[in-house]
Amino acid sequence: MTTHAETTFPKHFLWGGAIAANQVEGAYDLDGKGLSTSDMLPKGILSPHQPRNERTPGIKDLAIDFYHRYPEDIALFKEMGFTCLRLSIAWTRIFPNGDESEPNEAGLAYYDKIFDELVKHGMQPFVTLSHYEMPFTLTEKYGGWGSRKLIDFFARYARTVFERYKDKVKLWLTFNEINMSLHAPFTGVGLPEEASEQEIYQAIHHQLVANAKAVKLCHEIIPDARIGNMLLGAMNYPYTCHPDDVLAAMHENNKWLFFGDVQTRGKYPGYMLRYFREKGIEIAMAAGDLEEIAGASVDFVSFSYYASGCASADPKQKEVGNIIDSVPNPYLEKSQWGWLIDPKGLRILLNFLYDRYQKPLFIVENGLGARDEPDENGEIQDDYRIAYLNGHLVQAHEAVKDGVELMGFTSWGPIDLVANSTAEMSKRYGFIYVDRHDDGSGTLARKRKKSFYWYQDVIRTQGASLTR
């Protein structure tokens, strides 16, 4: 007989959603905010960035106007029962150009209001320092993360927000999906898309040192806080049981696990040092870099999970995907945007990461992008989203029963937002519909979808209402 305790998530499990400043706030040029790298990608990260003097307006300039409408949106999150909200601070609201000696007070005051609103509603702010954006001036003036100078600029930014919000924010992340730099270097490290591997990995080294400095600063300034890293959980299976395919999967997984290994274990792994040797990549390191990294292990490991992939030793098997290429899995269905739907892959990934790192895990992004169309009554019956999330949460619970220490779950895009990859509104993730469209039209009115009430019930019952 199954007991209630066996069907529910742990008592202190955090439930919520995840958003990013550059995809919801809008107000891209208000209150002293500078231009970010995201602001220079009007059609999303799949498009080349535009020089400052050629910048054209884009849908992200207004996004869903969370900048002004946050009280209404946070109230809706509270109605669903959220106990935390993952959000990001726009670096350019605090240091508009990135290299100023003093922060922009208007930007700091804005996030004071956001965090106060969350606390008022009983929600923990869960803050990412840099979510697919950085001051654009740092790419123009210094060459992005290719310059060591960015380490200190980022540390100054981190210190500023830690000191300002130390009494309000106890959960932090450094860089969103830090391994994405390998696939979208302008978005990840502010380098041109045609940058070489040598240039990208050098920039990544600077970012990893900056990550270590931020972790140490957080521990010093907010001793009762926890700070984690964030990976794009791109789990690859071998396409066949041929040993060459198993090795291919191992190599593909090592590309992203490298980031987690450095941030948790505090050193460059042997497989990466071999890769550098064989590729002729030489990372320039300053005295103390490795000691800095070694002394700053993160408190927990967080990750996004949308799909799994396959890897094959046969290059002809590879298929172009959304940002990341992989071999299609014949046993899985695809979403409208071609992403493989693999709930059991989440359980596999959770067990894999927990076995590897022995640190608490946090699923900070998971959701389904789909074209939501109101029916004849104006309602949105998004049963496909319910089915997707239900399946993934059931498998997350299975991982908890396997012994995985799981801190929480924040679904990606609890409210419709601008898609990061393509800058579309039509790729909707939310439990809350926003009346805005790809051409910029719409009233911005908010409306609860069917999934809103479903997620509300899941949270209320600690997962007991999930269909198993």
UniProtKB/TrEMBL annotation:
Biological process terms in GO annotation: carbohydrate catabolic process
Sorted UniProt keywords: Glycosidase, Hydrolase
Gene3D superfamilies the record matches: Glycosidases (3.20.20.80)
Coiled-coil positions: none
SUPFAM superfamilies: (Trans)glycosidases
Origin superkingdom: Bacteria
Transmembrane regions: none
Entry protein name: 6-phospho-beta-glucosidase
The organism of origin for this protein: Photobacterium ganghwense
